């Protein structure tokens, strides 16, 4: 059985980050991708409770750990993530600031 080879990823742009956030929300909230847009509030529009947000953080950390050096969302940062746009902006800013693995 061959060993796993390192994965090469194309650099993430903001649209790519949105796609990752949306795809994770689709799985967590069991909804369709077209039901998620950047302007939506996690709580008011998507009915995401605190457990769903913790699941989102875990999923994003896992999804981005192979692509971005040291990607982590701290508990203090989670309090600032009220909308899908907030999450996309946070992740994208981290990707730009900390670089991506090639």
UniProtKB/TrEMBL annotation:
One of the record's GO molecular function terms: acyl binding
InterPro entries listed in its UniProt record: ACP (IPR003231), ACP-like_sf (IPR036736), PP-bd_ACP (IPR009081), Ppantetheine_attach_site (IPR006162)
Keywords, in A-Z order: Fatty acid biosynthesis, Fatty acid metabolism, Lipid biosynthesis, Lipid metabolism, Phosphopantetheine, Phosphoprotein
Keyword Lipid biosynthesis found: yes
Signal sequence bounds: none
One GO-annotated biological process of the protein: lipid A biosynthetic process
GO annotation, cellular component aspect: cytosol; membrane
Annotated ranges, domain Carrier: 15-95
PANTHER family according to UniProt: ACYL CARRIER PROTEIN, CARRIER DOMAIN-CONTAINING PROTEIN
Protein name: Unannotated protein
Organism of origin: freshwater metagenome
């Amino acid at each position: 059985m061959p060993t796993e080879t390192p994965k090469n990823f194309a650099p993430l742009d903001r649209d790519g980050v949105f796609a990752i956030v949306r795809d994770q929300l689709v799985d967590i909230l069991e909804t369709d991708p077209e039901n998620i847009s950047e302007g939506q509030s996690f709580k008011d529009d998507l009915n995401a409770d605190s457990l769903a947000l913790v699941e989102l953080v875990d999923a994003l950390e896992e999804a981005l750990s192979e692509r971005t050096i040291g990607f982590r969302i701290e508990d203090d940062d989670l309090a600032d993530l009220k909308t899908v746009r907030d999450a996309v902006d946070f992740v994208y800013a981290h990707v730009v600031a900390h670089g991506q693995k090639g």
